[in-house]
Structure formats: structure tokens, C-alpha cells
Amino acid sequence: MERNHNPTYSIIDSQSVKTTYAAKERGIDGGKKVKRHIVTDTQGHLLNIMVHPANIHGTVAGCEVFRDALEKYPSLQGVCADAGYRKP
Known about the structure:
Blueprint lengths: L8 E9 L16 E8 L4 E8 L4 H15 L5 E3 L8
């Protein structure tokens, strides 16, 4: 049986990381400088990524990065996220 090449389900998560001082925009979040959000399909294939200052709340950036993934892959029907994304 062949798998559908269009992803129907995705997983989103973020990571706070320190950055170099050469970065244009930085925010402060518990000593971290930037956050990166990724959206993958259930096989782990990268669907979208976003790097932003750490002072932008994860739910705001998470919605944006998922919205962009949905535009690229309109076949997406669902997303799995941890509790950090539960607020609007």
C-alpha cells in the first residue's frame, strides 16, 4: 500500500535558544534570546519553520507558523501540540 504524499496531520513545537550578539532582533525570555518553531508531519518531515525574538509569545508565533504550513499544505486536517499552545 502506497502512502499519500500530501500530509494530513502535523506536529508543532518550539525551542528557546541562545543566539549570538550579531542577531538583529532579540527578546528576553528566561535568559534565552530567540525561539524557533517547527511544524513536521507524522513522519518527521519538515513542513515549516520560524525563528523569532523570544519576547513574542509562543501561541502567537505558533499560530502564525502553523497558518503558513496550512497554506503550503492545504491537505492538513489536524495538529498535535503541547499544552503551551492551548491559549488563543
